[in-house]
Prior knowledge:
alpha/beta
Amino acid sequence: MIAQLPGFQMGYDESGEGLPVVFLHGFPHDRTLWAAQRLALAPHARCIVPDLRGFGHSSTHGPFSMDQYADDVVMLLDFLQIESAVICGLSMGGYVAMALWRRHPDRVRAFVFCDTKAGADSEEARGRRDELAALVKREGARAIADAQITGMVGSATRERRPEVVAGMQAMMGRQPVAGIVGALQALRDRPDSRDTLRTISVPVLVVVGEDDVLTPIKEARAIAEAVPSVARVRLEIIAGAGHVPCLERPAATTHAISDFLSTLA
Length: 265
């Protein structure tokens, strides 16, 4: 489906009824990242899965920033006449979720932070973002897919599930160059969100793949420890998964989210 928003087009999928849950993909992904969870959770929740600006079927023009991505999500909520929703974000989607709390806290019912972190990029990481942007401009999206696939999925997935590896590589390789470059700039310049975590007052689930090397378990624990006790935070570690447990271990990830959603009734 396509939402025609003010000055911007957003691709999205929607399934189910009940408690609204918005699933935000990571970098450089699109909304198909969360397809298994959208379908499995539809009997229990209204699942909304958008393409962030620059990805999938969404517009590829800027501006690109975590704040802009967050504002885009709110425009989609307005379009769908949703007052507030559970926000579930993986990796970059988690950064967008944190920006949503800074800018639109009244629109957030609860959070699922999946394989993400709160800190800003180091100088070394910022330089790497610029190198990747130059690579994509020169060689196209397939180049970043090749560069990132090893870190994107866990060792068990690479060894035992080649179809998941191939699917992830294809997803990354089909994204628009303009969206990838814009997102790299947004990632490079995103603010530190550790102080943001300390202000969260809604329930929080933190999910992380056991073998995630990009945002490892220590980052998930840091999020869980920073969130105030009023948020009743839970931490779920998905065995045998890397950075994208929603694809690598979809049933286990769905179960963790479903169990969390059941506490929000």
